[in-house]
Amino acid sequence: MSNPDKQQERLAEADLMRRVADRDHEAFAELSQKYSALIFSTAFKVLNHYEDTEDVMSEVLNTIWKKADTYHSKKGSLVTWICTTARNRAIDRVRSVQRRSALYDKFETKLEGDKPDARTTGREDLYRSDARQVLRSAVVALSPDQREVIELAYFEGLTQKQIAERIQSPLGTVKARIRRGVERLRVAINDRLKGEGQLLLNSVTD
């Protein structure tokens, strides 16, 4: 592609993103149609999982809709920006799955350590199975915003200030999301495990 053609393409990309930033739904539909396949293929290379890739593609398109004004054509092409966004979000998804797996392992280890001996009754086995399901469903039931900050705080060990910088949100917003998320976990877990859920919550917040 010649330089004049490349420059023209950059101008067209910048114009498209300006219209998306101005909440032009037709522009966003145009962008989605043009780049969805690219987003999907980029994410699938990382995830190798169809449903997770579809989720990531939706997340990336949502991010573009919300943060179109952060794109600057002078820093690179729109294709590069979109591919980078898709790849980073896919990597975040992989890490999130790994963190959740580690969380469940941690909880099982804690339960094993609290038992007086290695033998278990059918009732204890049932409790551990139910408890794992309660933890899984409680975390998944959080709003995406709450789940994001709790994972960053408790599973990546970021400070609230670091989280605010990572997700580009005010510090007060991050604090509120963490507080509401932890309270929702507390209520959901204790309600379903009749007060024994504090053990589960400790495995999340220790």
Give me a quick take on this structure.
Helices cover about 80% and strands about 0% of the residues. It is an all-alpha fold and about 210 residues long.
The main sheet comes to:
none
Radius of gyration: 22 Å
**Count of domain modules:** 2
Could you report the average pLDDT, rounded to the nearest whole number?
Answer: 78
Structural class: mainly alpha
**What assembly state would you assign to the polypeptide chains in this entry?**
single chain
Report the total helices. 9
Number of strands: 0
Please report the first level of CATH classification, the CATH class of the largest domain: Mainly Alpha
Shape: elongated
Strand content of the residues, in percent? under 5%
Give the helices and strands as they follow along the chain. HHHHHHHHH
Percent of residues in helices comes to over 70%
Fourth-level CATH superfamily of the largest domain: Winged helix-like DNA-binding domain superfamily/Winged helix DNA-binding domain
- Which residue ranges are poorly predicted, with pLDDT under 50 across at least 5 consecutive positions? 115-124
Give a verbal description of the structure.
This protein is mainly alpha-helical and 206 residues long. It folds into 2 domains: 3-90, RNA polymerase sigma factor, region 2, helix turn helix motif (Rna Polymerase Sigma Factor, Chain: A); 115-205, Arc Repressor Mutant, subunit A (Orthogonal Bundle), CATH 1.10.10. The chain is 82% helix and 0% strand. It has 9 helices and no strands. It has helices at 3-21, 25-47, 50-67, 78-114, 122-141, 144-155, 160-167, 171-193, 198-205. The longest helix is centred in the middle third of the chain and has 37 residues, at 78-114. The protein is elongated, with a radius of gyration of 22 Å. The chain starts with a helix and ends with a helix. 22% of the residues are buried.
